[in-house]
Amino acid sequence: MNWKTFFALLARDAHVARRNFIPLLLQTFLQPMMFVFIFGRVMVSSGYMPVAYKSLLLPGIMAISMVFTGVWSVAMPLIAEFQFTREIEDRLLAPIEISWLAIEKVVFGTLQSIIAGLAVIPAAWLLLRPGVELNLRSPLSFVVVTLLVAFFSSCGGLALGCTVDQTHIGLMFSLVLTPMIFFGCTYYPWSALDHFPILQKVVLVNPLVYASEGLRGTLVPQFPHLSQLAVLVALLLFDALLLGVGLRQFRGKAVS
Amino acid sequence: MLAGIRTHDLRKVYTSPPPLASGGFVLSGRSKGKKQPEIVALDNLSLEIAPGEIFGLLGPNGAGKSTTVGILTTRVRPTNGQAWIGGHDVWAQQVAVKKIIGVVAQRPNLDFSLTAREILLFHGAYFGLDSIDRAARADALLDRFQLRDRANQMVRGFSGGMMQRLSIARAMMHDPQVLFLDEPSAGLDPQTRLLLWEIIREYNQDGKTILLTTHNMEEADALCQRLAIIDHGRKIALGTPVELKNSVPGGFLLRLRFGRHSPELLDRLQTLGGVREVRRNDDPNGENSADVYADRGGSLVSEIASLASSAAIELCDVHISEPSLENLFLHHTGRSLRE
Asked: Which residues in chain B are contacts of A94 at CB distance < 8 A?
């Protein structure tokens, strides 16, 4: 394994991310923060939502931020670099096995996703206070869940980025990401779907459900949430599945 | 360490249209019961390129040049056959191969998120150069390719020629033993083309192997020590530019067009002094035309004209070309390189 090359590839991505810091920041946080403001502040202050909703909402927003950032930061550059600009060719010719280039993308996407997720906590807390009650009982399980969520997000980005055609980016958002967010138990706990038994089963194929419920279980366990064990198993499975699919798609794109 | 290139019976069949990186293709028309037609891009190509050689692959678009480069640079998986660079099997030992090759693709593929200098620096870093070496080499290459004044600008706004120069500088950044240049001077102005040729020759003087593809005769003639002419994925001629030119009968080619078709006239042309071969043009639109390969050019024209007028056939058009690789290609394939 050629670590020098691997770190040089990471350094390149970090350099580009630094250069695009402001657009990256807006793209990651603007939407979730507006959501936090409207639902957590406007709706609660005006009495349409109970105060407790602030705490319930926060893990969901964190999950959306993480998944969106992980997918976006890996998929969007890959779509452009493979199809239009072919920029990736130089890195495919770097002296390293090509799957490691995909793994580098995943590592970088995971880091970005973790940063995006962690940054939501203070930002949302500032916007929502007072009334947010976080109960971090097990820091370890919080760290594990956060890592697994960030990892499946960037692996999902790899799989999508090597599958979706440039002309279908809009479809990727409307057919994949938007339904994922709305049926991802982000704005409500999974138990809120008790009245919709079929839907409640169907949404279990959505990895974002486990992200939201997992973070809810570690950050605000006072609310109903899926069992931590089920969440961990599901997240591990999604991590492995999406990494496998992503690597396969990447190799298919890189070599003709 | 000197590194040569060897390929043995390379064959590449695409079942879906090949990506742009591998250039054009040839339709074979077979489908084997599947919907997708098979596209044979390379048909058992064997080549041996010595270390330190400047070798040219010459052929029209779609001949298989870029697919050959794609296979040799690990980007295209051969359907059959093997390729070696400096003793490493290209497909089985990709990392070892990538360490010793530099590649300039047909289309610019620069990293648009970086400045010109950063592109060189990061490329050096991928290949493990330390930061002092990287900076020194990047500056030297920016100077050599006359890009110093644009070094700190993003490459998005560069002209095609500047992008091409930077692509070549990038490929040389890690000082590879083997350099692949796919259509290196496409889109360059004549002055830059000369600069590029000079740099390629200079690079070759250090014992580096260079494989370039081109459909530009002048370039092949000016740079290459040996050439392979390929068409439909097959090698149709191999040798030094001089050898290849000498292999055309007579050397001169006179392309004639008459008012009407007359086999007798073509037979009589064959008897003129210095004429080596007369071919009726197979081109469906060129019914009344013929190609005459001969030892002399202009002096034949008056004799041809008088033969034609004695047979009451008008000589409508004459085009004389001197010994060239273009003629060679035409001789072997019946097609012009630019068709």
From this structure: 98, 126-127
